[in-house]
């Protein structure tokens, strides 16, 4: 239950925060939503709509890159591994800092910049397969990944079809902390207005 709702609410909240900090991104999202839904702001979002919301998908991924719901994960090594000349013995628990992995400037130039265009297909060519792992990767990745992404897109599309979002804090004012999921110790303050 925890993994199915707390992570999605965290991801959705941080996505709204980032959208509210970047009016040019919000404008592009509104244009895409208008193309898909026209003037109908009440029609339920369908799976076909989700497939057509390509820029929204990029925004969700970029939000998860910068502010991943689960910024740290632990794994137990199943066999001895040589890493940079050091042997890590079988049975060792290692932690992967997804928050920092997603800020590798070799994979994501200007890594602190919120840039959803990073996830357009032509911009992803040459990027390492494990440079972006908000749901972990391999045989232990999140089994709810596809559902979580769909759920977040439906929520964001529903909100942004009707509302404008303006964030009222800088990222340094959020007081980010890790309590199984990434959280803001100061709350996240946004202003909502009717479109």
Describe the structure.
The protein has 195 residues and is α+β, with helices and mostly antiparallel strands. Helix content is 40%, strand content 17%. The protein is built from seven helices and eight strands. It has helices spanning 2-21, 23-37, 47-52, 54-66, 98-101, 121-124, 145-160; strands at residues 72-76, 81-83, 86-88, 93-97, 163-167, 176-179, 181-184, 190-194. The strands form four sheets. Strands 1-4 form a two-stranded antiparallel sheet. Strands 2-3 form a two-stranded antiparallel sheet. Strand 2 (81-83) and strand 3 (86-88) form a beta hairpin. Helix 1 (2-21) crosses helix 4 (54-66). It is globular, with a radius of gyration of 18 Å. The mean pLDDT is 93.
Topology readout:
Blueprint: H1 2-21, H2 23-37, H3 47-52, H4 54-66, E1 72-76, E2 81-83, E3 86-88, E4 93-97, H5 98-101, H6 121-124, H7 145-160, E5 163-167, E6 176-179, E7 181-184, E8 190-194
Antiparallel strand pairs: 1-4, 2-3, 5-8, 6-7
Helix pairs in contact: 1-4, 1-7, 2-4
Average of the residue pLDDT scores? 93
How many helical stretches?
Answer: 7
Distance between the termini: 34 Å
Major β-sheet strand ordering: 1-4
Please tell me what the overall shape is: globular
Quaternary structure type: single chain
- The computed structural class is alpha+beta
H and E order = HHHHEEEEHHHEEEE
Low-pLDDT residue spans: none
Largest sheet: 2 strands, antiparallel
Taking all Cα atoms into account, the compactness measure Rg is 18 Å
């Amino acid at each position: 239950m925890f993994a199915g709702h707390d992570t999605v609410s965290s991801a959705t909240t941080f996505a709204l925060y980032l959208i509210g900090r970047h009016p040019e991104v919000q404008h592009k999202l509104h244009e895409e939503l208008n193309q898909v839904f026209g003037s109908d702001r009440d029609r339920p979002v369908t799976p076909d709509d989700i497939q057509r919301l390509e820029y929204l998908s990029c925004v969700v991924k970029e939000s998860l890159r910068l502010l991943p719901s689960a910024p740290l994960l632990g794994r137990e090594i199943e066999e001895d591994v040589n890493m940079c000349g050091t042997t890590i013995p079988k049975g060792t628990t290692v932690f992967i800092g997804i928050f920092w992995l997603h800020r590798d400037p070799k994979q994501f130039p200007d890594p602190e910049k919120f840039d959803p265009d990073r996830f357009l297909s032509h911009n992803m060519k040459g990027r390492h397969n494990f440079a972006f792992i908000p749901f972990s990767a391999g045989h232990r990745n999140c089994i709810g990944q596809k559902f979580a992404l769909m759920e977040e897109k439906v929520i964001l599309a529903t909100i942004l079809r009707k509302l404008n979002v303006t964030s009222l804090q800088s990222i340094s004012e959020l007081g980010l902390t890790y309590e199984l999921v990434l959280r803001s110790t100061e709350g996240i303050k946004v202003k909502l207005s009717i479109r």
